[in-house]
Amino acid sequence: MSRQETQEYRTRLKEMTGVLKKHGITRGVTPEKLRLILEDLGPTFIKLGQIMSMHSDILPKRYCDELMRLRSEVAPMSFSEVEEVLESAYGCPWSEIFTAIDDTPLGSASIAQVHKAVLKNGASVVVKVQRRGIYETMARDIGLLHRAVKLLPPVSLKEMVDLDMVLDELWAVTREEMNFLTEAANMEEFARHNKAVAFVGVPKLYQEYTNQFVLVMEHIEGCSVDDKKALLADGYDLEEIGIKLVDNYIKQVMDDGFFHADPHPGNVKVCEGKIIWIDMGMMGRLTERDRELLGRAIQGIAVGDVGLLQDVVLALGDFKEKPDQSQLYEDISSLLSKYGTADFGAIDIAEVTMDLMEVMKENKIIMPHGMTMLARGLTHMEGVLADIAPEINMVEIASRHMAGKILEEKSLKKELKNSGKNLYKSIQKAVNIPSLLSDILQGYLKGQTKINLELHAAGELERLLRRLVRNIVMGLWVMALLISSSIICTTDMTPKIWGIPALGAFGYLIAFGIVMYVFLKHIFSRK
């Protein structure tokens, strides 16, 4: 590391220390204080907080809720800096591509800012310009954070969250967001998936003017999806918008496996009768297996099947350590009993998801990244619905959508295909049974067979057995002390107390103490 880089690290470290002192970090970190600290520390830490808000499986819910409120607006670059970035990205003055660019940005976030502009052909566009030097700034800050994590005491936030994992994920996600070609590819893929949906739109992408540092797309004049006054003034039915919004989001998740991971009101507009999705920098993906397991989870919640939901959780999750399946079963059973008496259509799907994440966190189960992004997305969607059409329930719409898919021909073909695969696998395994039995018998006859037996005892039985073993061990100690002390007392060993060897007397006293301890513990435990 050069002297200049070392100086930059020291300067940045001094800034970070100043912010932490300002907020009284030594007096504890409440959810609100954490959010304010991250905002004061700048773009890297705002983005870190946004990533952490998606980890409801490992971070307490109150922290996730607060971090979702992180202010993404930061101080904008000067227009001269914007011009420098444009000319560096295009290799020519921006005036050769654009007729005009507004000096004042429409918005300024941690990684980029957005300006309204006009192309030479007269098209009204939005230009997303990456902040100058943001890659180097974030790389430096993340390097400092990795060092700081190593210095954290064992009893801290480090116990709740694998901070190194969060930092690695932050860097991976941020690098994707900093490459605007990735966002451009996301826009094209999203448009392909929703091409046949008449009420959904995506801004037109100007691929020829888009590169790693600049993204140019159509400017959408519509109003935000939560701007009720403007929507009603334009003659829109808020309930219809809510139903179509949720139906499309369920399609993105369950049919496409490619969904908008940050669907807050600022990223969803209504224009000319269409719901327009913008800002595709953060997208979630679910594999076909994930979607199938998600469908089974919904089915498990609907019918109150604890075993089915437990199987889904174990199939989906990664484990820090081997989970206690009996404890997991009890936790899921408690979760389902909370919603068991509720009407299925009245269930808050975001609340169920967050509660399920809490169960996973308690059992040290980590969900795939796509599932944690989905939890965040569902929370945003529930918030939008509560604002514009509170009578709409996501579960009902999701149920109708999934029921409709089952009746489609392609779903029937898929079911038959899957059934055929399962039948083939079952036959293949059945054919192998005789040879497996033969191997087991031969191993047994040669004395090579081993049986791994794992017992799961109930909590009460486990405590009873532990007490029983402890009392037996103490009884053996008392017996050994009495016998050895009695043998010593038959000798003339010195020194002596009360006419008997002191060592023997000491043994008798220890034995008496153990007996009294066991007796009193038994009396008080019965009370």
Shape: extended
- Would you tell me the structural class of the helices and strands? alpha+beta
Q: Termini distance?
A: 67 Å
Q: Mean of residue pLDDT?
A: 80
Helix count from the secondary structure assignment: 20
Low-confidence parts lasting 5 or more residues at pLDDT below 50?
Answer: 154-158, 406-412
Cα-atom Rg, whole angstroms?
Answer: 32 Å
- Summarize the amount of helix as a percent range: 55-70%
- The total strand number stands at 15
The fraction of residues in strands falls at 5-15%
Write up this protein.
By secondary structure, the protein is α+β, with helices and mostly antiparallel strands. 61% of the residues lie in helices and 10% in strands. It has 20 helices and 15 strands. Strands 1, 2, 3, 4 and 6 form a five-stranded antiparallel beta sheet that branches. Strands 5-10-9-7 form a four-stranded mixed beta sheet, with helices on one face. The protein has a two-stranded antiparallel ribbon with strand order 8-11.
How is this structure best summarized?
With 527 residues, the protein is an alpha+beta fold. The protein has helices at residues 3-22, 31-41, 43-53, 61-67, 79-90, 134-151, 157-160, 163-178, 180-193, 228-233, 238-256, 288-303, 306-316, 325-340, 349-362, 369-388, 394-407, 409-445, 459-489, 502-526, and strands at 98-101, 107-108, 112-119, 124-130, 200-201, 214-218, 223-224, 258-260, 268-271, 274-277, 283-285, 318-319, 365-366, 496-497, 500-501.
